[in-house]
């Protein structure tokens, strides 16, 4: 059973920004759907 859950998250497609469509480099299960560029964030990784 645990392997099925892990496979689900492993096989999720890359998350895309809802504003510009750029791939977001973060965890797929995160709630945010806007990249830092579109948010205007001053802090960059």
Automatic annotation (TrEMBL):
Pfam families: YhfH (PF14149)
Superkingdom of this protein's organism: Bacteria
InterPro entries xref list: YhfH-like (IPR025432)
Name of the featured protein: YhfH family protein
Record organism: Geobacillus genomosp. 3
